[in-house]
Description:
- By secondary structure, this protein is an alpha/beta fold.
- The chain has helices spanning 5-9, 21-33, 45-51, 71-79, 111-124; strands at 13-17, 37-42, 58-62, 64-65, 68-69, 84-88, 104-106.
- It has a single domain (5-128), classed as Response regulator (Rossmann fold), CATH 3.40.50.
Amino acid sequence: xxxDAPRALAGRTILVVExxxxxxxxxxxxxxxxxxxVLGPAPTIATALRLIGGxxxxxxxxxxxxxxxxxxxxxxxxxARVPFLFSTGYGAAGIPEQYAxxxxxxxxxxxxxxxxxVAALLANxxxxxPASR
Length: 133
């Protein structure tokens, strides 16, 4: 993690979409420790879609929510121009081709890497970050 990551997150709002309470809590704690405000965590598609209206600066999106793929949320984030990354226990094969460019962090996620990648999203304003794959 770069020394700039904590500053990049300070005062920014990050939507966390994760249905596993323990993982969501850890992600929330890490982002807040670096100065971010967290929307959510959202454990369902409906909750996440509602929270997108809170105008997050970026989002961390679990690929599978309660057995349902979360690509409807990814589409809504793209429409709202909110950069996001995927967190997943699945490999690249679980991601549709249209989202192959999106940063994908494999679970279990190293929290320092998560913070650095969210900071990169905020700096780039885009989900595109091929060096992270």
